[in-house]
Design a protein that fits this description.
The chain is mainly α. The protein folds into two domains: 177 residues, no CATH class; 56 residues. Helix 6 packs parallel to helix 8 and helix 11 packs antiparallel against helix 12. 30% of the residues are buried. Belongs to the AzlC family. It is a multi-pass membrane protein. Keywords: Cell membrane, Membrane, Transmembrane, Transmembrane helix, Transport.
Length: 240
């Protein structure tokens, strides 16, 4: 097999993540609008996106702040929503763990749903790649995704309330997450975690400050871990 050039690998990442621009643009624009309505100016909204770069957590924080939630609740809820990033990082360690500290720091900053979803699928398929090649692909995936997040946050903040409510940009949020999660439902543990988290999020939707999401996340992870444990024990018994 001929050796792939760095440029070729980088543009593989760009091509794989390019479709997400279709949802990232309205998603980030919507965040800018919501941030402006919550009282943030353009600089504050863009800085928020640049420093945090975590859409779901940013929406959670803004909505809780608009509802005058206690600061501690805002922080806990936002961290809980973003807890999946810790799991993303852990699953990328076998592929990127031998990179330098600086490289891992930059990769950690750019870990978002899109970069993780594309990268983990590609890394599983191309296990012969070196750490350098994996990093090049990872940053190729980030290239079309992250800059629009910053840019269109600013656009949304500028436009602000000029966008009529009838222009429902929020349709992009569930579509984006369905597109990310669907292909990753490959095992019984994944399906169990998804089903339990959705069901419990609906059951506990009455809890204030979106605390139902915390309960749903914890129960979903517990369900997935339990199913994975059962499956692994079953596989061991059948193999012995």
């Amino acid at each position: 097999m001929p050796t792939e050039s760095s440029k070729s690998i980088f543009f593989q990442g760009v091509r794989d993540s390019a479709p997400f621009i279709l949802v990232m643009v309205p998603f980030s624009t919507l965040f800018g609008v919501v941030a402006a309505e919550a009282g943030l100016n353009v600089f504050e909204a863009v800085t928020f996106s640049f420093l945090v770069i975590a859409g779901a957590a940013q929406f959670t924080a803004i909505e809780l702040m608009r509802n005058d939630a206690p600061t501690l609740i805002v922080l806990i809820s936002s961290l809980a929503v973003n807890l999946r990033m810790a799991m993303y990082s852990a699953s990328l360690v076998p592929y990127l763990g031998k990179a330098t500290l600086a490289q891992r720091a930059w990769a950690a900053y750019f870990i978002v749903d899109q970069t993780y979803a594309c990268s983990i699928l590609k890394f599983d398929a191309r296990r012969e790649w070196t750490v350098k090649q994996r990093l090049i692909y990872f940053f190729g995936v980030a290239a079309p995704v992250c800059p629009p997040w910053y840019l269109f946050t600013g656009v949304g903040a500028v436009v602000g309330q000029a966008i009529p409510e009838s222009f429902a940009l929020d349709f992009a949020i569930p579509i984006m997450f369905l597109a990310l999660i669907g292909p990753m439902m490959r095992t019984r543990a994944h399906v169990a975690a998804g089903f339990v988290s959705v069901a419990t999020a609906l059951i506990f939707a009455f809890l204030p400050y979106n605390l139902g999401l915390l309960v749903a996340g914890l129960l979903g992870m517990m369900a997935g871990a339990q199913v994975e444990l059962i499956d692994s024990r079953r596989a061991e018994r059948s193999g012995s």
